[in-house]
Amino acid sequence: MAFGVVIMNHAELDQAQKMLWKLIRLGSLAQVRNGLRKMHPADVAGLFPHLRATEQLTLIDLLFEEQLAARTLKALPENLLKELLEKIEDQKLAMICTRLSPDDAVDFLGYLPEERKERILGLIEAKPKQELETLLLYPEDTAGGIMTTDFVALPEYLTVRETMEFLRQRKRGEDVFYVYVVDARGHLVGVLPLRNLVFWEPEQRLREVMIPNVVRVQTTMQQEEVAHVVAQYDLLAVPVVDEENKLVGVITVDDVIDVIEEEATEDMYHLANLDTDEHVFTPVLRSVRLRCPWLLVNLATAILAALTVSLFEETISQYVALAVMMPIVAGMGGNAGTQSLTVVVRGLALGELDFSQGAKALFKEIRVGLLNGIVNGVVMGVIAYVWYHNLWLAMIMFFAMIANLVIAGLFGALVPLGLRWAKLDPALGSSIFVTTATDVGGFLVFLGLATMLLRYLK
Amino acid sequence: MAFGVVIMNHAELDQAQKMLWKLIRLGSLAQVRNGLRKMHPADVAGLFPHLRATEQLTLIDLLFEEQLAARTLKALPENLLKELLEKIEDQKLAMICTRLSPDDAVDFLGYLPEERKERILGLIEAKPKQELETLLLYPEDTAGGIMTTDFVALPEYLTVRETMEFLRQRKRGEDVFYVYVVDARGHLVGVLPLRNLVFWEPEQRLREVMIPNVVRVQTTMQQEEVAHVVAQYDLLAVPVVDEENKLVGVITVDDVIDVIEEEATEDMYHLANLDTDEHVFTPVLRSVRLRCPWLLVNLATAILAALTVSLFEETISQYVALAVMMPIVAGMGGNAGTQSLTVVVRGLALGELDFSQGAKALFKEIRVGLLNGIVNGVVMGVIAYVWYHNLWLAMIMFFAMIANLVIAGLFGALVPLGLRWAKLDPALGSSIFVTTATDVGGFLVFLGLATMLLRYLK
Fold it and tell me: Could you say which residues from 57 to 116 on chain A have a Cβ atom under 8 Å away from some Cβ of chain B?
């Protein structure tokens, strides 16, 4: 909010971005510079995908000179940022990292190859370097990995007057909304929301005015759990402590929003058998490399379904209508299975379902499958009768539909619960398992029934 | 954060919740009351799913008496809250609504049937009632529908001293982090982050110390766009203005987190052909009612696929291996289509892709489909040859796989882009369209080729 003109509506923003885009293309750098000073870095970031590679580098140079590079790059989508970081000189990147808040700098460094990361760290001054090196030790997806060390912690014996004096002198850093209070050994003992400053008397000590019980998380907590805590208690920031309750960092709500979006993308991608490294504009060859292994696994399981069908070649050759009905069996099982799977995976992700209630969820999905199987079985039975004028075929379709949707409910719930039980991601690869189960199970019941009743079908 | 003991780790929280649960079951209400005062309302909320219906009502009564009902109910998941609201007496619910912040009260009222909503509004005092009635006029999923009217706006000519005086006297309301500054006609002209209070002199006027350009949204903006704005600019709150730039409300970041989770759920659910009203523990019959229409639509499109196959009954009856290969064609097309679909839907949702880049995304998905088709086609061709010792079948599988995955990429991108172009939800029903396209297209190519080359197959 401390930046120049913030544009308030789409039309204005569009116009300003287009203007800047034209100025860059024309090479009117003085005017571009002027424009950059007036726009919010997040809006300048929006321009990058529309620029040619050389223009992107020119813009980064200008931003760097205007000391806006850190704030602008930070607002880029991850995939684009990774590409651009490859092209920025080491010296500049080191400068940019020192201007970022430590948590963002660590993210930037995390995108680089190991060797280059070391080189850049070597270019950073001792103090920030040490801070970054400590942060880099935490796994990326834990509280330690997403926290910043840029926070205000003050000893409990300080007075309100001294605190205000301290804050006035402090300049750099992210927006401060809370001051954390620590005891002599650095243990977190309380918090002061700065908005409450107006209520305090200058000579009161922090320990008298602080809120003594603070929601906190440990460095080792998984990032999605941190997001749960922040969402659950409606926090703007959550302090991070080590195993001895010493305050070591803070996670702010804007980073939590990123985590929530990242986790949602991950679940969606895993349900669709996609790698989380992929984005809509990932280069074609890389997309192929990322998707192909999944497709090959799917091919292997599709062959399982084909093998099931091959058991019944003789039956099908005698009554080809069965081959016509096969896509219906597979399609319905797949769809119903995906429904159950998605409800359970999302329930687990949102914390609406924990493992202890697994049996309840499983039983529910089976019953839903049974009832939906009856409804769709009746409809399909009637259609099959009208189509082939064969009551036995209609009955086989009716029972096959029920069996198929019960299998879909059973495996749609069982697979993600089983993965969670094994401490794996409940979404990962689950749709392949479920589809295999509905295909194989569905064909077995459908073609098995048909084989038993073959003499009535012909 | 203003509540009693906040429990900091899972084990402690678990223990405290279990203790409270036991006390409720035993009916030791005095001790329950004592426990409630010590726990965070969000943690008490976590107890509800584990209680019997009568216990839930007892707990609500106790919470009501302790003036904790509003804050606790607010933290419940939507589906459970809806159920409980049905059981709370009108008078109590009206009281609870007045204790909620207006945006939450409007959410609660929105869950009620029209007639009961009117009755409850009738029980609320004139002033808050009018506020709620105004908020209820905005569509639920717009900025107007999620904003609160509980914010601080002060005229620009006020001094810092007067502002601090005002804040000291103000009691009720959500956490205040920003004071908004308005001109004589109520137009939003600036913002004061309260943390900056320490930097100001008492006699300065607000217009001198405020940040003049504020990111703002209009009442009509869609909630997912609001979430984009807040995430993009890393805001803690965003002011909402009407078409004349008059400040009418504020949206805080905790509500934005809810929007982001809601939108992610919606996309996932729509990709899986689920209604957003469903949750993991929605009662069985209601789940059946919500899923069945989708399954019937899917049945209709599966019949289209079956009709396609029926065009080739003669071919299949002469060479049954084709029926065996069918699940592979359908399965691979479905999986590849879902991959393309998910990448495009998520790209649109995260704003990484806008409609103007649609052709680029479409073209990319087609090329990915082509290359993946070649890889999987070779693998499948070899397998088909080993299986049936027929080079023609292997070649048909090779070409069918390529055609099928190109169709998957084409429709996987085209369907969500088309839906967005028609101003519909890009995820809604899209997987049914895509699967139909890959099934029908895949079978046409596969069985069509087989029919043309039938004499070499036999």
Answer: 75, 77, 79
